[in-house]
Amino acid sequence: MQTVLFTSTIFGPIHSRRLGTSLGVNLMPRDGKVCTFDCLYCEAGFNAQGTGKAGLPSREDVFRLLDEKLSAMKSAGENLDVITFSGNGEPTLHPHFCEIIDDVISLRDKYFPKVKISVLSNSTRIDRKDVAEALCRIDNNILKLDSAITATVKKIDRPVSENFDVRKTIEYLSQFGEKCIIQTMFLKGEYEGVTFDNTTDEEIDALIEAYKQIKPSEVMIYSIDRKTPATGLVKIEKSELDVIADKISKAGIKVMAAS
């Protein structure tokens, strides 16, 4: 079984296709995964690997480790474009997520005031007022919407909650408007006898209507780029992504297709 990708709380910097030189913040366990989705394409593996034994890093440890890393990078004259909350699961699940956001903003301002702060979230916790407010305080509030059709989300993203309804997610995404970037993963394939394809005309049309309702500052579309825990997944080539992006753009929505 493919297991956790990030074995530390602060990792990188790494090169991000979408964000540039990125220093990662992993608020999940170093030896396990905690997430409200169980995506077929998650580079950190399936939830079945368990939550590990290390537990979530404390707010104090996140502050200390990030302070040390940023100080060292500043002293060495290293380049940095963004600090990104990512890692082994959903970052907004951390009980001190909102306070940690404020800590990271203060450290960014101290060492690299021009650097952006990004959060990659699966959008499942944005119904919480405190989480939504914290996400509005950062530079890049990047929220997942892989399909505007609930049945498709359940096939690809596999929400832990049996009551998941993507229509509710879209309503909560709409509260952000231009204060969010929507990120959509396009793929097709089969897993355990279930087929899926979110590149069909029906899927694209539904997504465009959702994008229009949300009114994000930008939509980022991309496909598989790294090893996935599920086999049978098909990467969407750049030429097809460009066709999808053109259709989204013609609907009046700013869109970027990752290479």
Concise synopsis of the structure shown:
Helix content is 32%, strand content 21%.
Description:
- The protein has 259 residues and is of the alpha/beta class.
- It is built from seven helices and eleven strands.
- The chain has an eight-stranded mixed beta sheet.
- The longest helix has 18 residues, at 59-76.
- The two termini are 28 Å apart.
Please mark out the parts with pLDDT under 50 across 5 or more consecutive residues, or reply none: none
Intertermini distance:
28 Å
Main β-sheet description: 8 strands, mixed
Q: Tell me, what's the shape? A: globular
Would you list the SSEs in sequence order as H and E?
EEHEHEHEHHEEEHEEHE
Mean pLDDT: 95
Query: How many whole angstroms does the radius of gyration measure?
Result: 18 Å
SS elements, strand count:
11
Enumerate the strands of the largest sheet in spatial order, edge to edge or round the barrel. Answer: 1-2-3-4-5-6-9-11
Structural class designation: alpha/beta
* Number of helical stretches of at least 4 residues: 7
Beta-strand fraction estimate: 15-25%
Helix content: 25-40%
Task: Jot down its keywords.
eight-stranded mixed beta sheet; 259 residues; 21% strand; alpha/beta; three-stranded antiparallel beta sheet; 32% helix; 11 strands
Describe how the helices and strands are arranged.
Layout: E1 10-16, E2 20-26, H1 59-76, E3 82-86, H2 97-111, E4 116-121, H3 129-135, E5 140-144, H4 150-156, H5 166-173, E6 181-185, E7 187-191, E8 194-197, H6 201-214, E9 218-222, E10 233-235, H7 238-250, E11 255-257
Parallel strand pairs: 2-3, 3-4, 4-5, 5-6, 6-9, 9-11
Antiparallel strand pairs: 1-2, 7-8, 7-10
Helix pairs in contact: 1-2, 2-3
